[in-house]
């Protein structure tokens, strides 16, 4: 099963992994099916959103910071409760349909690994399911 590793550089990092996922899909030889993208971390997640205009990612980051700030009445002793909450709300996996050997993403969509507890090395697992 293919997996990717990425080193994040900031406490909150958005890494556009779309091209990496497209390469895995291409190399799989699967024409029709599903692509599962999974992040096995409790303080990171995967999103699909605007992948062309980088200001959208900035806006998303600022909105998340406003909704789930780093300082709060958290009890988790490691000090990264906000990262856990953010990841739990957003989710650590996405499924994208495949057709004609390509991801069925919208025109502007990109796939992002989001790390809320960086900088760290993060793993992304990709599973291609062939339509039967």
Structural commentary:
The mean pLDDT is 96. It is built from three helices and eight strands; from the N terminus they run ββαββααββββ. It has 132 residues and is of the alpha+beta class. The protein has a single domain, classed as YjbQ-like (Jelly Rolls, Sandwich), CATH 2.60.120.460. The radius of gyration is 15 Å and the shape is elongated.
Short description:
The chain has 132 residues and is an alpha+beta fold. Helices cover 27% and strands 36% of the residues.
Structural key phrases:
single chain, 132 residues, alpha+beta, Jelly Rolls, five-stranded antiparallel β-sheet, three-stranded antiparallel β-sheet, elongated
Structural class: alpha+beta
User: Judging from the principal axes of the Cα atoms, what is the shape?
Assistant: elongated
Radius of gyration: 15 Å
Whole-number tally of structural domains:
1
Identify the CATH architecture: Sandwich
Beta-strand content bin: 35-45%
Task: Work out the helicity level.
Answer: 25-40%
Largest sheet: 5 strands, antiparallel
The level 1 CATH classification is Mainly Beta
**How do the helices and strands follow one another from N- to C-terminus?**
EEHEEHHEEEE
Q: Give the full name of the CATH homologous superfamily.
A: YjbQ-like
* Average of the residue pLDDT scores: 96
Q: Report strand order across the widest sheet.
A: 1-8-3-5-6
Point out poorly predicted stretches: none
The termini sit apart by 19 Å
């Amino acid at each position: 099963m293919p997996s990717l590793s990425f080193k994040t550089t900031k406490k909150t990092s958005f890494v556009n992994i779309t091209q990496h996922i497209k390469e895995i899909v291409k190399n799989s030889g699967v024409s029709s099916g599903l692509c599962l993208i999974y992040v096995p971390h409790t303080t990171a997640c995967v999103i699909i959103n605007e992948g062309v205009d980088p200001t959208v990612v900035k806006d998303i980051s600022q909105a998340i910071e406003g909704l789930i700030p780093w300082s709060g009445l958290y009890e988790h002793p490691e000090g990264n409760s906000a990262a856990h909450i953010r990841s739990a709300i957003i989710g650590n996996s996405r499924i994208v349909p495949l057709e004609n050997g390509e991801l069925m993403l919208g025109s502007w969509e990109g796939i992002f690994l989001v790390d809320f507890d960086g900088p760290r090395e993060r793993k992304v697992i990709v599973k291609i399911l062939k339509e039967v």
